[in-house]
Write a structure and sequence with these properties.
globular; mainly alpha; 67% helix; single chain; two-stranded antiparallel sheet
């Protein structure tokens, strides 16, 4: 990762580290999306030394009791004390140790850790849980809070990989404009809901990283110089993605689009060779992927004939096509569009505390107006591109990213349609489900706003967007924290936020991290704005 200067590189990464860490520390355990389920699978893999099977009790008594004491234990409908109740808070003591902290720590024994009581843990493929279990084992003798936060910090390293990938993709969009690359990377990296969905114990962060890395490699192979190593790297990323989440198969429409572009550019003989290669390679790929699905999903190895079927998401299996009459796709798609505008889009920018806490309405109103301006800018860009017939690298990459975003949206929509026909209810589409393509979304919004900006003001528009995103991030962090803790007094806040944490993050440790977080973001913004002023000065000189 090559940033403009060592100083801006250091301050950028330092600010990201402290911001990500603050989100991890201010959110109590089990309050990131499905964290208790993901951690249950990590703990099972580490403590039991094997892979979970479907329909097997997989949540330990230790985790279950901690959920009950902390109010996150869900009933048969999937609700707990926090669900749709933003006013509910944990009972806090008047010291750094919570009321139930000692009781939860006492559950750190072989009997409670290895006795499974619930079928709650996630049933995703093994790759993330295998890696996370290695981190878990390093702290295997410590209390539950230490183990949870140790695995949480593993997410931080994954996020850094994601940020590097985002910066690399931005280089394809702005190959000669380092400042715009840094600006785009900063906007994506400080999106609060994106951080929230990646900071807990979850396979989502690894899924985001691998999907974006696959997008980068596909774009590079399609529009830039590439080597056989790039193709092999892409194959490894796809296999790792399948080993993380079954949803990774959404990458195939993206790969298909890339192959179509490459095919259209080839001469006749090369086209023939290309088609023959696909006929030979595709069946092999499908067999490998299906085998991997069974292997990492905890299934027994199936008979060979079962390996020849097309890859599917498990929940769609057994759906009867004749039930399509009961739910026409057109009617369902209209509903999805309305639901996207009314709920999915707002949740994309922020929904916390077990789907109970949203941001103030004014925040969404401001965001919606920014998005409308961006759409106007993109329409102008499309008009100019068609009129001038000018398809430079930036335009090609943006078109490809737009297609990727649309393909991902349609794939999720179609999956939910099949799910409803098979189960009678929606699996519940949330805004965070679309973060694997967040680089596409933000890039299009960013470019759309730059198109509307006068040439002399583009740098300041980019800087304003970065500053607004940083403010949005810390406002969201403050808003969420205010619904978990009493912020009327700094001392009270420190006492409450120190509870149910490893000892190192209690009291003074927490104060130190808060102070470093404030210093780091100020340093980054100072160095970043220095770049803006320098660029402006150079333009005037020229």
């Amino acid at each position: 990762m090559k940033l403009p200067k060592p100083s801006i590189k250091f301050t950028f990464l330092f600010a990201l580290l402290l911001n990500f860490l603050l989100w991890q520390l201010l959110i109590p355990i089990w309050h990131f999306p499905d964290e208790q389920a993901h951690f249950g699978q990590v703990a099972f893999r580490a403590d039991q030394g094997r892979v979970q099977r479907y329909h097997e009790l997989s949540t330990s008594r230790e985790i279950e009791i901690s959920e009950e004491l902390l109010g996150t234990r869900r009933d048969g409908l999937g609700n707990n004390r926090f669900t749709y109740h933003p006013e509910y808070k944990i009972d806090y003591s008047q010291s750094y140790e919570g009321f139930h902290e000692a009781e939860i720590e006492s559950l750190n024994n072989p009997n409670d850790r290895k006795t499974e009581t619930l079928e709650e843990s996630s049933r995703y493929p093994l790759f993330y849980y295998f890696l996370a279990s290695k981190i878990y084992n390093l702290f295997g003798n410590d209390d539950l809070f230490t183990r949870v936060y140790a695995v949480r910090f593993f997410s931080l390293f994954i996020f850094f990989g994601t940020v590097i990938t985002i910066f690399t993709i931005s280089k394809l969009i702005f190959p000669k404009k380092i400042f715009l690359r840094l600006s785009l990377t900063s906007i994506v990296s400080f999106m609060p809901m994106f951080i929230f969905s990646s900071a807990g114990v979850t396979s989502d962060g690894l899924f985001h990283f691998l999907f974006m890395l696959a997008i980068y490699l596909i774009v590079k192979i399609t529009f830039s110089k590439y080597t056989i190593k790039d193709i092999m790297f892409l194959a490894a990323v796809v296999l790792a993605g399948y080993g993380t989440k079954f949803q990774f198969q959404i990458i195939w429409p993206v790969i298909a689009f890339a192959l179509l572009i490459i095919f259209c550019r080839l001469q006749f003989r090369k086209k023939l060779f290309f088609l023959v290669s696909l006929i030979v390679i595709v069946p092999i790929i499908l067999i490998i992927i299906n085998f991997l699905q069974f292997f990492v999903g905890g299934h027994e190895i199936p008979p060979f004939k079962q390996l020849l079927r097309l890859p599917v998401i498990p929940e769609t299996e057994g759906v009867r096509l004749k039930s399509a009459v009961e739910l026409p796709f057109v009617g369902y798609f209209i509903y999805v569009l309305r639901h996207t505008l009314a709920e999915t889009l707002p949740w994309y920018f922020g929904v916390y505390k077990w789907l109970s806490l949203t941001l103030p309405p004014i925040v969404y109103q401001i965001i919606n107006r920014i998005l409308m301006l961006s759409i106007l800018g993109l329409l102008i860009l499309i008009y100019k591109t068609i009129r001038q017939s000018k398809f430079d690298q930036q335009t090609k990459v943006l078109i490809f990213l737009a297609y990727t975003s649309i393909a991902y949206f349609l794939s999720i929509t179609i999956f939910d349609w099949f799910f409803i026909r098979g189960h009678g209810f929606s699996f519940g589409i949330q805004g965070r489900y679309f973060f694997p393509t967040i680089i596409a979304h933000v890039s299009l919004v960013f470019v759309g706003l730059l198109v509307l900006s006068p040439k002399s003001l583009k740098k300041w528009v980019a800087a304003t967007l970065v500053l607004a995103t940083v403010i949005f991030n810390y406002f969201s962090l403050f808003w969420v924290a205010s619904h978990y803790y009493d912020l009327s007094s700094f001392n009270t806040f420190i006492i409450q936020v120190s509870q149910y944490k490893p000892e190192i993050f209690k009291g003074l440790g927490m104060i130190l991290i808060l102070l470093l977080g404030l210093i780091s973001i100020c340093l980054f913004l100072f160095e970043y704005l220095k770049m803006v002023v320098k660029i402006k000065t150079n333009l005037k000189t020229a």
